[in-house]
Amino acid sequence: MDKGGGSSNNIKADDASLETGGGQHHHLDHLLFRQVLRITLLCTVIVVSCLVLYHSAYPFQFLPSSFYKPASSARGGNLSSLGKEELKLETVLKKAAMGNKTVIITTLNEAWAAPNSIFDIFLESFRIGKQTQRLLNHLVIVALDQKAYSRCLALHPHCYSLTTDGIDFSGEAYFMTGDYLKMMWRRIDFLHSVLELGYDFVFTDADIMWFQDPFPHFYPDADFQIACDNFWGNSYDLNNRPNGGFNYVKSSNRTVDFYKFWYTSSEAYPGLHDQDVLNKIKYDPFIKNIGLQIRFLDTAYFGGFCEPSKDFNLVCTMHANCCFGLESKVHDLRVMLQDWRNFMALPADQRASQPSSWSVPQNCSISNFHPPETQKTNAEQGGNN
Ligand SMILES: *[C@@H]1O[C@H](CO)[C@@H](O)[C@H](O)[C@H]1NC(C)=O
Ligand SMILES: *[C@@H]1O[C@H](CO)[C@@H](O)[C@H](O)[C@H]1NC(C)=O
Ligand SMILES: *[C@@H]1O[C@H](CO)[C@@H](O)[C@H](O)[C@H]1NC(C)=O
Ligand SMILES: *[C@@H]1O[C@H](CO)[C@@H](O)[C@H](O)[C@H]1NC(C)=O
């Protein structure tokens, strides 16, 4: 979608310039000739300056020619800024990565980054979680607007500003509008670039609380592993209901190809967001052909309001999915943090022997919300993102 929007914009710009040229061409042929000459010259200048920038940014590195073309650049057609973008991204990733080139990534907009909103709660979970504080050193915040970026800079060492020309991602009200969809797809495009740069990542929505280190619970042999709204018991079963808000992806040709396929599939399914498209393409033969290993993560470790992790000794993350509205989400996440604090305050032997339980969902409970069937998925998605 985003890509489509970007390139159609380009085509429009081209059309406009052609029309101008066309308007003149029946007057004087030599004017047209001069126009063509000027365009040719301009293209040459752009290509040359692009090459110069590209090589000064990466003098010793081989990079495929398809390397990192964010939708925003395609849209504006400003090729000379490409080198700078990729350099900026790589600088942030390098600083934040673990020794094995792994980063944790989340995205934030203004509404979620505001004081006392999701971002604060998210960071707090790492601090009160069991051995999760150190993971903050490897967390990259991708800010979708200027306010989110400023707030990130004030609180966190690894911030990246991802801009998309002409789209304002700052409000809460973007949910399931055209801009909301564009933001979701922009995210897939961005993660594709991270993989291309050779970094493994855990992508986490910021409304996911990190209570314990998830790495020991990932499958060692999978390319793409994803948390679920509902987990049916078998991690290979494609019928599990994945939630795009949390996944662990290892960089390889297979995952780079997969993200590209996922992103371009948005054109085949207009109006759907990344998660719904994933539910379509997960059965596509393309995935088998490239040999991509997909696994679904057990809600016992990676839970949410849709299907909570029952055992506090096992839970790694809890997602405020199946929740509608930012205020409800913030309210219930605070309650959830308090449940966790209470659990951690217990003596070790009681923690092991006496089962704890969540006092949420409260305001998030989807039984409080009865949308018509077609909108129901959308409401759940609102919770997911
Ligand atoms: C292209 O990007 C460069 C670097 O970001 C910027 O300095 C320049 O003004 C941009 N040009 C246009 C036409 O947007
Ligand atoms: C990367 O390092 C982290 C932290 O030591 C570890 O938990 C994770 O399993 C490593 N990833 C791989 C693919 O080895
Ligand atoms: C990945 O793809 C590139 C280009 O197609 C190829 O040169 C390289 O050998 C591949 N790497 C692996 C590990 O398959
Ligand atoms: C949560 O729900 C209670 C009871 O329905 C309501 O009084 C309260 O205003 C809600 N709080 C938020 C933050 O939505």
UniProtKB/TrEMBL annotation:
Subcellular location as annotated: Golgi apparatus membrane
Bilayer topology: Single-pass type II membrane protein
Chief location: Golgi
Alphabetized UniProt keyword annotations: Cell wall biogenesis/degradation, Glycosyltransferase, Golgi apparatus, Membrane, Signal-anchor, Transferase, Transmembrane, Transmembrane helix
TM regions (residue ranges): 36-57
Residue stretches making up the Nucleotide-diphospho-sugar transferase domain: 135-333
Family: Belongs to the glycosyltransferase 77 family.
Protein name: Glycosyltransferase
Source organism per UniProt: Nyssa sinensis
